[in-house]
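Section 5.1 Outputs to date
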Amino acid sequence: MSVEHYENFPVASVLLPRRLREPVEAIYAFARHADDIADEGEADAATRLADLAACARALDLIETGSPPATPMFARLARNVAEWCLPVPLLRDLLDAFAQDVVKTRYADFPELLDYCRRSANPVGRLLLHLYGVDDAASLQRSDAICSALQLINFWQDVGVDWPKGRVYLPQDSLTRFGVSEAAIAAGRVDDAWRALMAFEVQRARAMMLAGAPLAKTLPGRVGWELRLVVQGGLRILERIEAVGYDVFRQRPRLGRLDWLLLAGRACAM
C-alpha cells in the first residue's frame, strides 16, 4: 500500500491527547516500516516477502510476551502490552503489504474493498481501541472512513502507481467505461477517463460521508481530529475534480490554504 507514509491519516497531531501519542506513533512506525519493505527500494519480491515474514515473526514474539530485539518492535511490544492492542489487526496490515508485493490488479470493487479491509481499516480500529470505543456502529463507520481514505489515495496516485506496475482501478470499471491500460500508460484524459474517475470519486465520497457521523460521536479533541480527517479526504476528491481528473500531470493534494477551509468545514459538521 503505497500511501506516502499514510499521508491521509494524520500522525499524532496536536489535537491528539498527549497520553495517546506514544501508542499511536508506535503503531504508525510499524506500519511505515512494513510499508517501506513492500514498496520502497530495489529489492525483489522474494526478499520483500521474506522481510515481511520476519515482521510477522516479531509479532509472534510480541503475542507470547517475548520482547523482540529491534528497537521499533520492542517499542511496539511495550505499547501492545500497556494498551492491550489487538495484534490480529497488525497482522492484517502485514497481510495487505505482502499482497501488494504480488498482486497488481483487482477484478472488481468488492475485491478492492477486501484489500482496504486489511490495508486501511485496521488503523482506524486500532485508534478506536485506544479511545475505548468498540460498538458495532462506530467500527462500521471507522471502516467506511478508512476505506474511503485508501480509495482516495488510489485515485490521486493512479499516475504514481502505474510505473510500479499497479492498477487499483477495478478491472470491471475499466471495461465498463472503455478505459484501457494503454490509456493509463499514456496518461490519456478523455471523456471515457473522466467518466470513470467521476464514478470512482463519487463512490469514495459516498463511503466517506457514510462514516462521517463517527466524528460527532467521539469526544473532545479526538472527534475534532477525525472531523479534519474526513474533511481532508473530501477536499482531495474536490481537487481531483478541479483538475478535470487529470491525476497524471498534477497529483492532487492539500496545501496550506486548504487547512483554513477544512477547519471551517469541520466546525460546521
